[in-house]
Structure formats: structure tokens, C-alpha cells
Amino acid sequence: MNIQWYPGHMTKARRTMQEDIKLIDIVIELVDARAPLSSKNPDIDDLAKNKFRLILLNKVDMADDQYTQAWENYFKDMGFFTARINAKTGAGMKQLTPLIQEVCREKLDRDKKRGILNRPIRAMIVGIPNVGKSTFINSFTKRTVTKVGNRPGVTKGKQWIRLNKSVELLDTPGILWPKFEDQQVGIRLAMIGSIREEILNTGELALRIIDFMKTNYRQLFENRYGIVMQDKAADTLAQLAIARNCKLKGDALDYDKASMLLLEEFRNAKIGRITLERPDL
Predict the structure, then answer these.
(1) Which of 8, 45, 220, 259 has the most other CB atoms within 10 Å of its CB?
(2) Is 157's pLDDT higher than 70?
(3) 122: left (phi over 0), alpha (psi -120 to 50) or beta
(4) 122 phi, psi to nearest 5 deg
(5) At 221, is the pLDDT very low, low, confident or very high (cuts 50, 70, 90)?
(6) Does 202 have pLDDT greater than 60?
(7) Which segment of 52-61, 87-96, 169-178, 207-216 scores lowest on mean pLDDT?
(8) Rg (Cα) of the chain, in Å, rounded?
(9) Is the Cβ–Cβ distance between 184 and 212 less than 8 Å?
(10) Of the given ranges (4-8, 20-24, 168-172, 180-184), which has the lowest mean pLDDT?
């Protein structure tokens, strides 16, 4: 499975971000807590040179908690400020304004010495597609200011949002990077829903999920579907199709339906809280 997705609007968005970065004090990057490293765009580090940085691990309710803590420590060791949030429920959001001020303390002290008071901190919100930026902004501002969709590519342009008198946010479209050097990164992003569905082979992706679950979360999978995982992923998918009555006319198994069902339940954490990568691997 070879996954690459970098449509034209991402090139344009990156160019715009390069132009806007000079207006920014802090870059707030959302990553998906289920795949924190794969969902962290390496281009952002180059783009955000000499800016204050904050990494937010979003969707923590879907991730394996023991690894979320490990990833938080990993990013802190790299010199980033970090926090864990669930933008959908608002968990962890109250801490963010004081945390942003803490991250930008040097700037605020510098402004104070110059007699500049009440100038808001300007933050750029960045992240890959479908990482939850729009949901985060709506939750942070406590009002609907951006369009939300459970699919990549909903936000296409930039917009400034006044959070309060101390912070302004610049929303940006979700962007990937031109090429995944490690195809495992592309596969993980496809698993969590950050790659446009139309370019994916969902059957093959379902088999990849089954192989991963067998090695790492076998009990969760077997408990969810009431089946015993087989040596071959295709045989397990067949068992799942039988268990969930995914059938065509004449009682033939509907592997496409079973694959889509598995993919949807995996992405929505119905199987359980799962983390796709670990800092020690």
C-alpha cells in the first residue's frame, strides 16, 4: 500500500502560512494522540523557527492513556510545551489561556518593559487534516466560528479569531507534507482518517488494522466482535463479516462492507482506546 496525498490547495496554504508567520508569536500544533509522531507535520518545525511552540495532544479520549503520558514526556524532552485535550468535550481547554501566556512569558515581559500593554498574543493554529482544529477553535472560543467536518479538507482558507483580550487565533487549513518517507506514517494517517477516503484501498487498510490489533490489542478486538483472531488477517475479516452479518445476495460475504465497518469503528474508538505508535519504537 503506497499512500501519498498532497493536493494543490495544501501547497497554496503552506505558502500563505510562510507569509503569515511573521505576524505570529506562538505556533500551536494539534496532533492526534493516537498517532502523535505520524500526525506531527515535520514541515512545521522549519516554518515555526524562532517562534514559541505548543503541542496539543487532541482526541486523548480515543488513545491508550499510558502511551499518551509517554508521548507528552517525549515532546517535553524535545523542548516543546505540551498539553492533552479533548476538543470535542472541552476537556483540558480551561488550562490553555494561562498556558499560552506561560509559553509566551518572555514576549509579555518584553512588551511590558517597552510600555506595550494589552497587546494580544497572536497564535497560529496548525495541524494535519482531520486532527480537530475547527472543533478545537469552536470549543476554545465557546462559539461556532469555523466549519467542522469529520473528514479531511473542510478548512480551505485562513481566518483570524479573537479569543479574548489576551489571545488572537489564526486558523489555517490542514496540511500534510509532499512525501511520506516512511510509508508506515501514511498508513497510520489513513487509519485515523487524515487521508482522503477516495484514494485509499479500504480492504487492504482493514487487513493492516487487523494485523496491528492482533499484535497489540488482540483482547479488545476479540471482545468487540466476539470472535477469535485467526493467523491470517483475511480469515479474521471473514469471521468479522459473519459476526456482523455483512453478506451479499446468495450468502456470499461482503468484504467491502466488513472493511468499512471495521474502519469506522476503529476510527471512532468503538473497539477501544488505541495508540498506533510508541515513543520507544
Answers:
(1) 259
(2) no
(3) beta
(4) -105, 120
(5) very high
(6) yes
(7) 169-178
(8) 20
(9) no
(10) 4-8
pLDDT for 124 beyond 80 = yes
Q: What is the 3-class SS of the chain, one letter each residue?
A: CCCCCCCHHHHHHHHHHHHHHHHCCEEEEEEECCCCCCCCCHHHHHHCCCCEEEEEEECHHHCCHHHHHHHHHHHHHCCCEEEECECCCCECCCCHHHHHHHHCHHHHHHHHHCCCCCCCEEEEEECCCCCCHHHHHHHHHCCCCCCCCCCCCCCCCCEEEECCCCEEEEECCCCCCCCCCCHHHHHHHHHHCCCCHHHCCHHHHHHHHHHHHHHHCHHHHHHHHCCCCCCCHHHHHHHHHHHCCCECHHHCECHHHHHHHHHHHHHCCCCCCCCCCCCCC
Domains along the sequence of the chain with CATH: 8-171 (3.40.50.300), 201-267 (1.10.1580.10)
What is the average pLDDT score of the chain?
90
**Amino acid at residue number 8:** G
The letter for the amino acid at 81 is F
